[in-house]
Predict the structure of Hydroxyethylthiazole kinase.
Amino acid sequence: MDVLHAAGQALTTLRARRPLIHQITNVVTVNDCANATLAIGASPTMTWAPEEVEDMARAAQALVLNLGTLQPWTLTSMLRAGKAAAKAGVPVVLDPVGAGGTAYRTAAARELLQEIPVSVIRGNLSEITCLVQGRSGINPGVDNHAKGQVTAALITQMAQALGTTVVITGAVDAMSDGTQSLLLANGTPMLTYVTGTGCMTTSLIASFAAVTSPFVAAVGGVLSMGLAGEQAARKSQGPGTFHQQLFDSLYSLQADMYASLGKVWHSYE
């Protein structure tokens, strides 16, 4: 597919430009997010202080807002950074970790969406469903508790409802900008045995968003994690060695692998 070729081309551009990716993210996964950003070829900065996030967001080529370990002061930083990024034309990628679990977390995610023009939202089915429905109490943790398979029709409707590019990661990964949609079947069950692979995928999407359109960035980031996960699983003996191999596999990805190894489950335009 053309979008898979475009994702491979974006990888080449990304590695040539080495864009700065500003990330206000999850303290549980911050180191892995930084290393995944480096492995794919971008440059991370994990700058959170409210006093400096606006300057950093303006200087970056993409911004990640991750609600994983949400605090009042991190929400303040996210709002300041997001608004500064928007004014500077810097794409913003939102990861609404655990949205739907509590009223506070749900309200924070919705406030960010109301105040900031987000380029891409990446979450699991529970989290994205919560944002579309605007209610909490349907997702008690960071894991996906929603049942059923994401279809091209469903992801398209969700992207249209939220007015931006939406990514739902799971056994089959789905992405849509409301007009074009794609389901990909790359990946491995081993990705569920290492914490932070979703957060890392968000960092990868932001790295691609620095050099290409939101939809291609969604495809590039998701497919990077899927392909790297497959490679790492073949070389590992369990979660520990898989975690180590995952970064090596991200680093070793080549542009032609996206079109040749990408497993398109379904596409819609």
User: Anything to note?
Assistant: The chain has one domain: 2-268. The chain has a mean pLDDT of 92. The first helix runs from residue 2 to 17.
